[in-house]
Amino acid sequence: AQSVTQPDIHITVSEGASLELRCNYSYGATPYLFWYVQSPGQGLQLLLKYFSGDTLVQGIKGFEAEFKRSQSSFNLRKPSVHWSDAAEYFCAVGVDSGGGADGLTFGKGTHLIIQP
Amino acid sequence: EPEVTQTPSHQVTQMGQEVILRCVPISNHLYFYWYRQILGQKVEFLVSFYNNEISEKSEIFDDQFSVERPDGSNFTLKIRSTKLEDSAMYFCASSSSRANYGYTFGSGTRLTVV
Description:
The complex is a heterodimer of chains A (116) and B (114).
Chain A: E1 3-5, E2 10-14, E3 19-21, E4 24-26, E5 32-38, E6 45-50, E7 56-58, E8 64-68, E9 73-78, E10 87-94, E11 105-106, E12 110-115
Chain B: E1 5-7, E2 10-13, E3 19-24, E4 31-37, E5 43-50, E6 53-57, E7 65-68, E8 75-79, E9 88-95, E10 104-105, E11 109-113
Parallel strand pairs in B: 2-11
Antiparallel strand pairs in B: 1-3, 3-8, 4-5, 4-9, 5-6, 7-8, 9-10, 9-11
């Protein structure tokens, strides 16, 4: 079965600084990879996803992520964070078993704090 | 932009009571899902639903849980006899296609079992 590890529970970044959130996955083949953001009291919003092709994926709100097969990683980056980026970030993995509608496996999340 | 709507946003129920969480998926979507998130923990897959039947379910989705699409618009999750450990945020999601996981999540229903 697939699994997702987000090694950082909390990250604090100064406003305007760059950001990298780490995500590692475990799966025998190339999975579908996702980053979601959850603001307090809100649902999950998709930031970006990777299925195949170019390993650098652009998402919404200025985020990007890079798939590195050799490291089984899909780290999320942003060159300059804004106070509004403070939220919980979840990495998720999906697989295509060829059967029905398969569910996603989520990491435990990284809580991003923005310092003024 | 189309939304997945969940009601209520917060529900409090007594242990042992039945509860129904309601979701209105995006109208042209065909795949429907329930996930839950216990406070402070990760989001966990419960069940997926397609063509009026369960496609996949996790170990969490035991006999206490059931899902239904009673009409053309609603998608419900029923918990027959709630336990304290069922307290969580429950998210509904819908997708037009399984293949690309074009999920849209709702804002969630916070269920508190007392």
